[in-house]
Amino acid sequence: MTSTLGFAIMSVLARQARTGYELATAMRRPLGYFWTARHSQIHADLQKLLAAGLVRFEAEHGPGPSGKKVYHLTPDGRAALRDWVTEPPQQRPERDELVLKAYASWLADPAELLALFREQLAGHEARIAEYETHQAAMGDVPAVDHPSFGNHATLWCGLGYERHRAAWCRWMIERLAGEV
Amino acid sequence: MTSTLGFAIMSVLARQARTGYELATAMRRPLGYFWTARHSQIHADLQKLLAAGLVRFEAEHGPGPSGKKVYHLTPDGRAALRDWVTEPPQQRPERDELVLKAYASWLADPAELLALFREQLAGHEARIAEYETHQAAMGDVPAVDHPSFGNHATLWCGLGYERHRAAWCRWMIERLAGEV
DNA sequence: ATATACATGTAAAACGTTACATGATTGG
DNA sequence: CCAATCATGTAACGTTTTACATGTATAT
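^ inputs. structure came back:
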């Protein structure tokens, strides 16, 4: 069975052939906004995808003890990815440490809590500004069958998320500021 | 080192003494909205917390092969929890399968995608209605040092999250409906 | 020359899920 | 009496992180 990471890798390869190293950097940005993995996990997963016939590689001369391997999707890989996209996602448990802290916030020091949420808010505001710059640079939303539609869709979601979290932080700050 | 699950457990025990079984049901609702664990993991973690002196239990006669154990926080446990609340959360990687699918959505069938996002939207709308009922039942927001402030804060966040996701689904549906 | 980026992999440990295993209490 | 709920725990497996291990190409 292909893991979700396997599909994340194939989602990148569907756009362009890449080495494992390049996949790892894609897992920081832009893919890292919604899926991450370390290079050790990526190399291991690539071997599984290879065994399943979903990817293949061209060995090229390059850095590293064993040259470089440029991976690309096979027709089977592209078909598997295409099918996976429209299947309902398995709902994995939510795990949100800041919300957990909010649940226990009643026993903490309000002044320290206020500092925590102000710090979090600053982070969200910085990311909102960053995402808005990206969005302005990307221009109009293309047709849904264009690769960059995926970039628009994920950026829209990321921006909405950051705005929601910023609003929540402001609500918390308002409540806490009244107590200090 | 206490795991985040350990603090989740202590967040529940800070309100009321509980058995491991009761902690597992709390990990479905209401805690399950932002942190989950199975009973097997909870029992294992309780033994770590016990060894660290952060919780203790009273053995009581009851069901099960070994009676029941009602756990409560020790003063050390309460202090550790209190300190943890105001520490910045360690940013754990985002992993969102639906957003990953959106990233690869350009190569899928628009009609099937439309069905997927309509289904997701229906789920969000149902949860919004459910949370709004909870919120109405809870009444006004109490002082920040009252345990139920934690319930209000987490519910506010959950409601904001569901509304954000619903809005994103509607945006996707609008784009996709134009193509089918 | 030397530091940085590029490049691939393995091993150990932590975290989390699923399945296995047992048995008492309670309500119908 | 029987089923559901309450109750505790262990074992096997898969996923993810951290650390270990190596070595080339390139720009300063």
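Residues 19-22, 39-40, 43-44, 62-69, 93 of chain B lie near DNA strand D (CB under 10 Å from a C1'). Chain B has seven helices and two strands.
thumbs up if we can close this ticket
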